[in-house]
Amino acid sequence: MEVKEARGSSAGSPIEAGPKAVVAPVQVSGKFSHPDKPEVYPTNLEFTNIATEEKLQAAIDKDHYSIQLPNHQSFRMSVTSADPAKVSEVGILVLNTTTNAYSCEIGW
């Protein structure tokens, strides 16, 4: 199915239908470091889309993570540990890039 958007050059001119631009997801990856909290064993980073409240998770493996996120969106980032009751806010990621990959190093 093709999504169409209306386009026209001026008032009163014909409107033509053209394909709507689709924003490709961005591969976001990086290192998650927590030197001030050696007792914490983080298991996941949770990205909550601020506009839609959709939650996406990336597993943390040997202090590294990787996830595909929609571009031109803002996300609240939280970390979970082996104890699911312990969820901590990490910060906010505003994703607005012209590339299909983005590196985000997180210090907590």
Descriptive report:
Strands 3, 6, 9 and 10 form a four-stranded mixed sheet that branches. Strands 5-4-7-8 form a four-stranded antiparallel sheet, with no helix packed on it. A two-stranded antiparallel ribbon has the order 1-2. The N terminus is likely disordered. With 108 residues, the chain is mainly β. The chain has a single domain, classed as Immunoglobulin-like (Sandwich), CATH 2.60.40. The chain contains no helices and ten strands.
- Summed up, the helix count is 0
In CATH terms, what is the architecture?
Sandwich
Under CATH, the topology is which?
Immunoglobulin-like
Give the oligomer, counting copies of the same chain as homo and different chains as hetero: single chain
Outline, from the CA principal axes?
Answer: globular
Output mean pLDDT: 78
Query: CATH class, anyone?
Result: Mainly Beta
Query: What Rg do the Cα atoms give?
Result: 19 Å
Category from helices, strands and their pairing:
mainly beta
Structural domain tally: 1
